[in-house]
Specification:
By secondary structure, the chain is mainly beta. The chain contains six helices and 30 strands. 13% of the residues lie in helices and 38% in strands. Strands 18, 22, 23, 24, 25 and 26 form a six-stranded mixed sheet that branches. Strands 1-17-16-15-14 form a five-stranded mixed sheet, with no helix packed on it. Strands 2, 3, 19, 20 and 21 form a five-stranded mixed sheet that branches. A hairpin with a 3-residue loop joins strand 23 and strand 24 (306-312). The protein is globular and about 65 Å long. The mean pLDDT is 89.
Length: 414
């Protein structure tokens, strides 16, 4: 619950700070030579009709492979609230939104460098560091400075290179989709009037100079809303887009926006309805409705084999996980994982190729090790040795895991 409340606080904070330090008159529309409208298709998406979840499932029945990566803790790398983790080549990039820093580790968790010094100098930040992405085409790290309305460019090692102005208001969500294209998300409440008709669309495409080169997805997410969660879930299959207040997930390319998954909550009370939200006139009314609805939030992840998401039923009681097996074309929902092996996690963060990436705090691992000592859980020697070395105030540990295919799952979901 603490994670949920903190996440909702951050979401509201992003919405409240989304206008940054620039006034509307400071923005000048800059476009590429050809500005294209991205067609949006709502056909042919996979419908995932969620059923009542199993009360529990054993970890050994769910998890195919897993490994832990402890993140080195020192005065430079001490972190609070992990918000995003990206694996790329030999590096792990960890965005700590509480400390407003990005720490860079090697693949074994050894600390290398950090980005996020507050100040007015080159490579320094002014306010909330909302998001970072790796550009695999130029091999650079891109970081969005909310106050200056700039994207700052760094080398993969964290060395500052240069920055560019971004002439629109955005909520911090962006993705690199091709060698010369970035897509950003602009909520209606950001009032990008200088974009003209494009202000009615939620996806804006920029070229490498951050000039507008395209737009897509005509959608009303309510101008009164201050609710602005991340809309690009982590995916190893390209850019995935989840419009605010919907349970739809689209594939986004430089050519089109196509529905990929629809989460069907017709079996549950009060599934979220974006049309109802569009008619509301107050941000508090919107949040109240959201909390009384059934919806997905925070941690959807897609790998090449699976699509994993979490359901928040009405009033956020009895939350549960679901994963969809793309090969078997089946899905499984469950409320609780019973640890019969030394596997545990607290929060889902991202993916690394075919692995889902989560964090697990030290206290959870210590309790797991105690269960192993009591013979209640089967533990690996290397994992027990790792946990034994952890101190109570060390950084959270990353856990990477693969799911078992559903065709091998013995039980039928009721």
């Amino acid at each position: 619950m603490k994670k949920i409340l903190y996440s909702l606080f951050l979401i509201s904070l992003w919405g409240c700070t989304s206008q940054g330090n620039k006034s509307q008159s400071d923005f000048v529309l800059e476009t590429s030579e050809d500005v294209s409208k991205l067609p949006t298709s709502t056909e042919n998406g996979i419908n995932i009709k969620v059923e009542s979840p199993l009360p529990e499932i054993k970890a050994s029945e769910l998890i195919a492979e897993y490994e832990y990566i402890p993140l080195e803790t020192n005065i430079e790398s001490f972190m609070g609230q992990l918000n995003n983790v990206t694996f790329y080549e030999d590096y792990i990039y960890v965005h700590d939104i509480e400390g407003n820093i990005i720490c860079i580790f090697d693949r074994n968790g050894r600390y290398l460098n950090k980005v996020g010094i507050k100040g007015d100098g080159p490579g320094e930040f002014t306010t909330l560091l909302l998001n970072m992405e790796i550009d695999p085409f130029t091999k650079r790290m891109l970081v969005y400075d909310q106050g200056l309305r700039k994207i700052l460019y760094f080398s993969l090692k964290g060395d500052y290179l240069f920055s560019r102005d971004i002439n629109l208001r955005m909520d911090g969500s962006f993705q690199v989709i091709s060698p010369n294209r970035i897509v950003v998300h602009i909520p209606k409440s950001d009032h990008n009037f200088h974009l003209g008709k494009m202000d009615s669309y939620r996806i804006i495409m920029l070229d490498s100079l951050l000039k507008v080169s395209g737009y897509g997805h005509l959608y009303d997410d309510n101008v009164e809303s201050t609710y602005s969660p991340p809309v690009f879930p982590h995916s190893s299959e390209g850019v995935l887009y989840n419009p605010i207040f919907t349970t739809d997930f689209y594939s986004v390319t430089s050519k089109a926006i196509d529905l990929k998954y629809h989460i069907d909550y017709s079996n549950f009370a009060n599934p979220i309805n974006s049309d109802k939200i569009a008619e509301m006139n107050d941000s508090k009314e919107i949040i109240k409705y959201l909390l009384s609805s059934t919806y997905t939030l925070i941690d959807p992840v897609e790998t090449s084999d699976f699509f994993w998401f979490r359901t928040y039923p009405q009033n956020n009681e009895n939350r549960f996980y679901t994963y969809y097996d793309k090969q078997a074309k089946r899905h499984l929902s469950f409320r609780k994982i019973i640890p019969d092996i030394d596997f545990a996690f607290n929060y889902i963060l991202s993916n690394c190729d075919d692995y889902i990436v989560a964090e697990v705090n030290v206290s959870t691992l210590k309790a797991l090790a105690e269960s192993c000592k009591q013979g209640l859980v089967k533990g690996k020697k290397e994992n027990m040795e790792m946990i034994e070395k952890l101190k109570d105030d060390d950084n959270s540990v990353l856990v990477l895991f693969k799911l078992k295919p559903l065709k091998r799952y013995e039980y039928q979901q009721k």
